[in-house]
Fold this sequence. Notes:
Elements: H1 2-11, H2 15-41, H3 50-72, H4 77-94, H5 98-105, H6 107-117, H7 122-130, H8 132-142, H9 147-174, H10 178-183, H11 185-210, H12 216-226, H13 231-240, H14 247-276, H15 281-312, H16 318-339, H17 344-354, H18 373-394, H19 404-424, H20 434-440, H21 445-457, H22 463-488
Helix pairs in contact: 2-3, 3-4, 3-9, 3-18, 4-5, 4-18, 5-9, 6-7, 7-8, 9-17, 9-18, 11-12, 11-14, 11-19, 12-14, 12-21, 13-22, 14-15, 14-20, 15-16, 15-17, 16-17, 19-20, 19-22, 20-22, 21-22
Amino acid sequence: MQRHATIHGMSHAPEPQQRRRLIVLIALASALLSAGAMAGANGLHKDPIAPVILGVTGILFFAVLGRFAARKLGQPSVLGELIMGVLLGNIGYHFGSDFIQVLREGPAVFDMVELALAGDSVKHAAEIALGKDSGDAILHILSGPGGPALTQVAHTVDVFSRYGVIFLLFLVGLETSLDELRSVGGQSTRVALIGVIMPFVLGFAMARLLMPELSINVDLFVAATLGATSIGISARVLQDLGELQSKESRVILGAAVIDDVLGLIMLAIVSGIIVSGGFSLGSMVQVILLAALFLVSAFALGPWFLRYTIRLVNRLDVVEAKMFISFLFVMALAWFANLVGLATIVGAFAAGVILHDAYFEHWGKVHEHQFSIRDLISPLEVILVPIFFVLMGVQVKLETFLDSHVLVMAGGLIVAAMAGKLISGLGAGGGMRRLAIGIGMMPRGEVGLIFASIGKSLGVISDALFSALVLMVIVTTLVTPPLLKLAMRRAPEPV
């Protein structure tokens, strides 16, 4: 009660006082991060893990600030975390923060280290992975006395963010069931199919038109990213409107289930084509067969694996068993997916679809368990996922928008992304608010960011294109709530 009263009191504090508190907190966090960086640079840390603790905690602190600000403004949490990352990355870069500059380059820094360890000269490795200007700047930072600590912190933040994405997709899979996939109906299936195919087609055409100098692999990945949907944002708006039981809501939520599956399959195919070295009918068929083999194997052998491992740990209590088995299963499938050339998130999603609390009936009736799998895994997601979104924001380089070509490219992608999903509403047929259904499928949110980050880690998406895709994610996420509210107030269309 004491804690609730304190929070309640804060929410009614005068606005100027809240702003002053926020400024003090940001200044304090920035000072701590700077002090930590200076201490690391001067070798003052006796424990090598201390800089990691400070760096990760600092990122998480800014994520919480972003989440608080977003909720205060009635926006999705993911948007606040992403924009906080954009501000942190670009302000830190402007003021010459070594830590932020390393984080800003993302996977390219680790590619540089890998090339150097493989025998390349460090300077040449930096130029290949980062380009001449960025390579020289990062090499100067990492060659300094604080370089090893910065590399360690950046790598840890990157690993934590990847774990966050895996747990996020696992929890999405937990909300999906095979029975649900079979029962969503023809309307949802049509909406989902159109909602994946049309953004893909429009995105590919727009990429070819606006970026003819890029390879077809880039165009394919951009198109796949535009096909994603983040249904959590629409579901929250529908819940606020009291419309979750309406026909339109059921179609949107049902289509989102199928959309997730189709989007991940499309990502697997496109990623496989890129990893295999180029687009060809043979490579596409090979990737499709591998994806099918993985899914069939996972759904056929996964239940057997779960029952066998649960028998091995039946002397543990139910909380320990659920935690250990869930973590083991999601990581095993994520690794297996990567082994066959698919994204790890495909395996994480499949693990969530397969696993459910009924496997743990050895400990009594499921509804009598104190905690569900979701209850136990959610705390990991709450900590790790915000780190991913802040890191994605940090890697958005606002200076790329000074190039008019990047702005045109971003505008074209936004138009293709919105139009493709709006067209999907036609699949619902008459007698429904088809515009509302199309708008409900429009936000990209966390799913679009995950797709874009995978493209960047594969070296397919440049800094400028990544920034354009993040802007597309922000715009489609921002415009959905007000547009969906207006569309749901309209009368259903005639049959």
